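Cross-check.
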Amino acid sequence: ETFDGDYRAAKAVCYQALHTIAKSLAAKAYRDDSSKHGDANTAREAALQTWDKYSEQVRDMCRKHLYFLGIVQLCVDRDDEWGGGSGDWNRSGLKELMDTMKELEYVKGTEKLEFPAFVLDWLHGAGKHAAALKVGLYNQDSQGSGIWGGGPGGAGAGDHHLEEDLSKRERAGMRWIHELRSGRAFNATNTLLNVARMDSNDSFATKKTLLSLSALANLAAAPPTSPGSMANGNRTDFKVREDVIAAELALMQVQEKLRSMAKTAVDGMDEDGNLPVITNGCMQPGEMVDYCVNSIVHSNDNGLPTLKSSLYALSIADTVDDARIDGVSGAELASKVWKVVAEKDQELWTRLDEKETPDEKETPMTPEQEMEGTLLYQVVFLDEAERLVGSYKTKAGQLAVSSGGGFGGDANVGGVALTSLWPGDALGRFRSHLAKCVTAAMEAAREEHQDKEDKKRAQKEFQASRVLTFVRQCRN
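Predicted model, tokenized:
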């Protein structure tokens, strides 16, 4: 009546009072014994005996009324507060908790494994991962009996409990730990990846840690490479998982670079006055591209920050397909980027289209030289340079150039077709100028790449010649 029928609240209040009394009596026993004998070990033993005497009565009441929180706290306090089980596992509170989990796998008024689920979630939330690991391996026998069962690689009741609800983050966090401890690195890889992807607003550091652990688990699950191995055919799956994890980590690296650019609130602020790029949460690929596009549109020039935003956004577009994120297309993201990059210098495209001749006194440059100063030229040049050295695995972010030198979305090239950026838009009439600009930038990037390759080859030949000369001199 006092709690208006709130049985749960009544249990909590009664338990808290009894728990406080038991704790106070144990603390008094410790002080009294310590004053009498001056020995910390005997004082701790006296406190432990007092705690066991009174906490057992409280625990019996908690079991009778199925107050799970009380059962867990009493067992954990036995070890944390009074050193229970130090040197004797059978006297530990954790051992007692495990026994209780087995006894309360299913009791009247609860669902199957409801109490073990509560214990795992509580330990996970309290950061007691070592205890959770020990609980996860408890009573694994070859018959799959007990609350965990199944042994390494097996599937017992505990496996079912851990895997039945991956949508709950705490449960999934316990699941991958159990999978690693039971020798199922392949399963742990997928679980860690799923957990890392669960919440886009989660801690950036936590997600990065989970992805790194997933990469390590994938290495542990890697099949043998010997030609005669039965597992050799599974290397394709291993490589796919490796690429997905690497892509996810690469996307996080891009966000870190965007953060470093947004050193002030003004730099990092979007059009609505928010600061999405410098929060502790994880941004989705589309959010990062939108942030970059907004930075390009509102920049006052084609300086380094604008150039970096363009290239970071294109690197995201090239990476998302490898990451295999549902509902996200690299080509669609790249189209948004290329559109704003090309429109950034619309004044120049308009002037060139109207065939105005620049005043040589004011602008002593040819149209080709003017194009080299556009954002489009610079981005295409650097993007092509990165592709020539193999920085990108896909062509999702590439501006497509047909074999004839124009823009038509050649099937052999892939990427984004220029003709798709302004369907029916007035800016479409500038395509010939844009095509010249992009072609010139790509050719310049290829020429520079070839020059570097030629220099490397000449340097290797020179070094080889020096070695040969040295060998000849030694022989003589």
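The radius of gyration is 33 Å. The longest helix spans residues 431-475. Passed to J.P. for a second look.
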